[in-house]
Every structure is written in structure tokens, then in C-alpha cells.
Amino acid sequence: MYTRHDDLANFIRIAQRLFQAQALPAAARQLAVKVFERIEQPSDDGRRNSQRYPACDLLDSALAPLLDDPSDLGAAARAIKSLEASIGWQRRTSGSNGSDDYVAKHVHGMICGPGGMESRYDVQLGFSLLAPLTRYPDHRHPPEEAYVLLSAGEFWQGNGHWFDPGIGAGLHNPPNSPHAMRSGTTPLFAIWCLLV
Ligand SMILES: [Fe+2]
User: Fold this and answer.
1) How many angstroms is it from 122 CA to the middle of ligand 1?
2) What does the alpha-carbon distance between residue 53 and residue 83 come to, in Å, rounded to a whole number?
3) Can you give the CATH number for the domain in which 40 is found?
4) Is the pLDDT of residue 160 over 90?
5) Could you say which residues form the signal peptide (predicted)?
């Protein structure tokens, strides 16, 4: 039988609190309540993605500004670092308007979800990491999703307008709504969750 590792349980508790911050839109907080209800039940089919990608090497520089932070943002950064060896990495290779080199300059870390540390199909909890000056392609997907930012970063939600929610704040993408993100001169790091 699968037993959840304490480091993962710790990260989940911290992420659950981050997704209830008042700085998030109400729809993001409401989605997160449902996601974390499901995550309470550990589940793993053992099909973790084993490949690492070049952008994984940006993890330390992306998290460095938060490692000494006494808030939950710092706790989240330290918890993610503790999970690094068990994260399931993946990349997007389709979509429009991405910067020329976006494939090499981004990576997603799946923690709970398909191919992740806890590989499962009912929820997704993980993060996106973009190298500086990277524009991730426009895309959409049926599950709605919520983000919490651990860095600076800009987001687009189909209306031509880019905005930076701010560290510790976030956004909500309704089902099938087009969206994208881009980094400035520092790496973009954002935790997301989806209800599948
Ligand atoms: Fe998305």
C-alpha cells in the first residue's frame, strides 16, 4: 500500500494555506478547497516521469530569494527543494506565440498528478518554472486552474492585457479559457492546482 512521505505531506499543507490567501481571487480559493479535499486521500500509481530537463537547473536560482523567508512562501520554497529528487518533470511543446526557445527554457514540476511524485489522475498540484525572458505559449484546457506566484511574472487571460499578480497572490483560469505567462529578467515560479 502507498504511504505519503512526510515531506510531501508538509508541502501539501503549506500549499493549501497559500491557496487560501486573501490576495487570490475568490474563484481560485474555491477551486483550491475542492482540490485539497481530494488530495487528502493519498494515491499513487508509481508512474513517475523520470526525465530531467535543462530548465530544472533553474530551480535553485528561482527559489533562492525565498529560502530565508519566514512566511509560508519561504516554507513552500524549502519544501519544494526537499522534494526535488522526487518531482516528475514535463514540458509543453505545442501552442502559439511562445518565444522561440520556450521549450528549452521552461519546465513543469508535477508533484500530485499524472507522472508526478504522487502520480494520480483526479487532481494536479505542481509548479511552472520559466527562465528569464521566456514567453510560454497560449493554451487552454478543460480543467479550471488556480495559480499562486512565488516570483514576479506576467499572465494573460485572452483579453490582450498582461498583469503581474504579485508574489503570494495569484489568478484563476476558468475551464477552456485561453491563457499564457511570461517572465521578466528573473525566473518565473508559480504553483498551480487543477481539478480534473
Ligand atoms: Fe494552463
Assistant:
1) 16
2) 16
3) 2.60.120.10
4) no
5) none
